[in-house]
Design goal:
Length: 196
Amino acid sequence: MALSRTSPTSETSLLATTVESVKQHLRVTHNDDDAYINLLIMAATAQVEVTTNRQMINATYAYKLDDFPVEIELPKPPLSSVTSITYVDVDGDTQTVSSADYTVYTTGVVGRIGRSYGAIWPIARNIPEAVTVTYVAGYGATPASVPAGIKHAINLLVGHWYTNREAIDMDSMANMKVVPFAFKSLCTAYWVPVII
């Protein structure tokens, strides 16, 4: 199994909050640090996605499987939509599964795909990554669709990094600042197990 994000290719279009929102949290009124705050938002969004195993802003993924399982659970929830399911058939040709042959479930914590009633999965060639599910995951296309708890976690992490701009200095361990507990607590509320 392998998972790759196919679009968007730029992290700047995947920001889960805005510079203006973070500046309000930081009580920053000037524009001198906007580029730096934007960089911190990119890093914090990526950290939240890794910590929770979720996708914040809509992105397209290609999930490759060796064969068709009974039910396909898709990584990086929430699942927005399934674009296509393709597979390499026994003759080595790429085929597309008809959307009438499967049902997409988006209501659970993890998005799933199951066979439609009376349908069976086709036989895929016995090779690695013979099946590819292309799908869109994320809360929506803009930061407005991201849950408030996740945006607050990003604000806290950006605030921590904005205030503590250096890596740990081993000579001054007594002054070491750790990521706020509230960040971990907020992320835990959205955590889902890794599927891959």
